[in-house]
Each structure stands twice: as C-alpha cells, then as structure tokens.
Amino acid sequence: MKTIDKALKLLSYFTVIQPEIGLSELARMSNYDKAATRRFLVALQNHQFIEQNEDTRAYRLGIGFLIFAKIREATTPLESIIQSSLVRLMEVTNETAHASLMTNQNLSTIGISFPNRGMQAHLELGDVLPLHSTASGIAFQAFSNNSNINNPTHKSYIKGLKTDSTTLEDTRRRCYAVSTGIYCSETTGIAVPYFDATATPMGAIAVATPNSRLTEKMYETFSTALIRESKKITSSIGGQMPQSFILTNPVP
C-alpha cells in the first residue's frame, strides 16, 4: 500500500501551470531517490496514467485518467453540476466565479467562469487555494470538523499564518467567508462551501472581484447568489446542508 501511495504522490505535482516535469525534478519534489522515482513512473506508464514527451523526456499525465473521469462524471456527476452554477454566478455578478474541491489535503480549483470584461480576477484550473489566505479556504475551514487543517503539517498551511477563531466564527454566523488582499493584494473573494451527504464540506464556490470595483451592495448580491448555488449543488449531488447553515440564512 505504501508503494501505491508513493506512486500516486507523484501525480499530485502535475498542474495546468506545470504539466510536464522531468525525472530529476520529480525526485527532488517528492524527496525520493531517482531510481525509486523511475520505478514508480514506469508502473504508472504501464497503466497509461503517465506518459513521456519523446522530445523533452519530461513526464506528463496520461490518457488513462480519461475513461475513469468519464465514468465518474456519467454515474456521479459533479463537474457539470458545479459548472452550471458557476455560469449562473458569473451572469448574476458579472465577476469571476470559481469552484474548488478538497483532494489529497489540497483545495484545488476545478471550475472557472470568467465574465466578458477587461479587468477581472484571474486564476487557473488546478490552482491550489491556500486554506488560510483565500475566501474558499476560510469557508471550508469554518464548516469542517478536521482539526488538523490549522496545523503547520497540513499541505495548505502557510507558514506563520493561521485563521483565527473570530474569522471562523464570523464565517459560520453569516455563512460566507471574505478574504481581501491576502492571497492577491488587488482582489477580494467571497466564498461558500458545498456539502456531502454527511454535511461535511467537499469544497467551495466563490466570486472574486478587483477591489476597485467592490461596493457594500455587492457583498449582499454575491453572498445571496453563492448561498443559493451552494444549496443547489449540495442538493444535486445528494448532499446535506448543516442545520446551522439553514437556520442562519434560509435562502431559497
């Protein structure tokens, strides 16, 4: 089992920004020796989960994931449901709407809908959203029972930065999180989690806007739209909203 864990760990380093990684760099990033890294890569290649660029000799994710992703989405849809919500959020707010999912201790961006305007908040699919400096991360923390999240050993922990209890309490009270100028100095994010069947957060949906455009009225517009879409996503995937969330803000 540890061998499988180690092999799968290599996959977590590939992103939209870094789609190809060489053997030496993968060994360095994973803290494995090169021989072991090569063995894991060969095993993954045998099942088409990893492939090698013949020109650069660097590795990238393989086509083996495609069929599993199609089966997962066809039988238990998530991406299509979330993307529909993001389009609605973008249309209501005219700002960048994005969604994240917690996997392997990382809150990673899985969907984005950009408005058709010149100045907009920007991010990439696959971006990891730090739990302690983004609205999505704070929203996820506020409703999570995972006491390990605020621990320096957690992957999304930022050295020297923790989310204080007052911020989490405020987020739970109003049912949405706000982060201004921490992750990105010129952007404000507002986020709400969505939940699984045990009322545990799976990820978050958020709206991000340049600070120069933000008004007090927009907080109400954004949060109302986010809570509405969180409930739609949660219901559509067979999830359950926490009772405190429903009582605090019974948005239809």
Can you give a write-up of this model?
32% of the residues are buried. This protein is globular. The model is unreliable at 150-161 (pLDDT under 50). Strand 3 (96-103) and strand 4 (106-113) form a beta hairpin. The protein is built from nine helices and seven strands. The chain has a five-stranded antiparallel β-sheet with strand order 4-3-7-6-5, with helices on both faces. Strands 1-2 form a two-stranded antiparallel sheet. The protein has two domains: 2-66, Arc Repressor Mutant, subunit A; 76-248, Beta-Lactamase, CATH 3.30.450. It starts with a helix and ends with a helix. By secondary structure, the chain is an alpha+beta fold. The protein has helices at residues 2-11, 23-30, 34-46, 64-75, 79-93, 135-142, 165-174, 216-236, 243-248, and strands spanning 50-52, 59-61, 96-103, 106-113, 177-180, 187-195, 201-210. Helix 1 (2-11) packs across helix 3 (34-46).
SSE diagram, text form:
Layout: H1 2-11, H2 23-30, H3 34-46, E1 50-52, E2 59-61, H4 64-75, H5 79-93, E3 96-103, E4 106-113, H6 135-142, H7 165-174, E5 177-180, E6 187-195, E7 201-210, H8 216-236, H9 243-248
Antiparallel strand pairs: 1-2, 3-4, 3-7, 5-6, 6-7
Helix pairs in contact: 1-3, 2-3, 5-8, 6-7
